[in-house]
Amino acid sequence: MSDRNQSASLRRALVVLDHVRDHSGLTLTQLAEAVGLPKSTVLRLTAPLIDARLLERDRKSGAYRLGHGTLRLGQAYLATLDLRAVAAEESHRLMSEVRETVHLVVYDPPHVVYIDKVENQTNVRMASRIGSRGPMHCTAVGKAILAWQPEDALTELDLEPRTKHTIVDLDRLRAELAGIRRRGYSVDDRENEPEVRCVGAPIFNHNDAVIAAISVSGLTSRITATRVRELGPLVAGAAARISRKLGSPNR
Fold first, then answer.
1. What's the mean per-residue pLDDT of the chain?
2. What residues form DSSP beta bridges with 204?
3. Is 196 strand, coil or helix?
4. Which domains does the chain have, with CATH numbers?
5. What is the three-class DSSP state of 173?
């Protein structure tokens, strides 16, 4: 078989595999119709996938489903993931797009921990340091994570007032978190530092659990209330792309 034919066969086999991933339980006839190939071709393409345990076929019904080999591949992929490395491209792209400092944090209850920072060298530098901890209730990254945590995570917080704008009422914080879940991004409106606004969004892992967050931060003179509404979808988009790279199924 020529290299071109091998490449075409591989592409068609991947189409079949992808379709079974999304539509488990199809018979040979159903699968062939769904991917637009003859049954004989589907049989030929699926044979090596079954041998590699990437597909399984029920002996009684003939229905196809993913094999346990896909689980091994997924586990091997997840084992190689490093959040900073996965997020680096999106963090730098976001900084270049908005020209503000980008932060990446992980959740370490009851705090967030800053694990990466990409600065726009032409702006005033943010005081945050990699490795430092930050509060959950008054940072954009903290609230982005907190919005997807159980109630226990809220009641254990120390709602310390960092500025006159800090939310220190638990009911008001609950309402704020509900708004974050609806729109997909969070805002720190001078709540942690008096002259700084931040816009954050959650990062989901392969279990669709929030484990981290990304944000852009800048002085209020640059990040105005109007600009917050422009930045929100951009930050949320970057977070969603990172989440997909981490294996999140719903981003």
1. 90
2. 210
3. strand
4. 3-78 (1.10.10.10), 81-245 (3.30.450.40)
5. helix
pLDDT tens for 191-244 read 999 999 999 999 999 889 999 999 999 999 999 999 999 999 999 999 999 999
Tokens of 205: 């892992």
Model-wide pTM > 0.85 = no
What does the block give as tokens for 127? 């005081």
End-to-end CA distance of the chain, in Å?
39
**147 CB-near residues (< 8 Å, 6+ apart):** 177, 178, 180, 181, 186, 202, 210
| Cis preceding linkage at 110, omega within 30 | yes
> What does the pLDDT look like over 87-144, one tens digit per residue?
999 999 999 999 999 999 999 888 998 989 998 766 656 667 888 889 999 999 999 9
Collapse the DSSP code of 102 into the 3-class scheme (helix H, G, I; strand E, B; otherwise coil) and give the result. strand
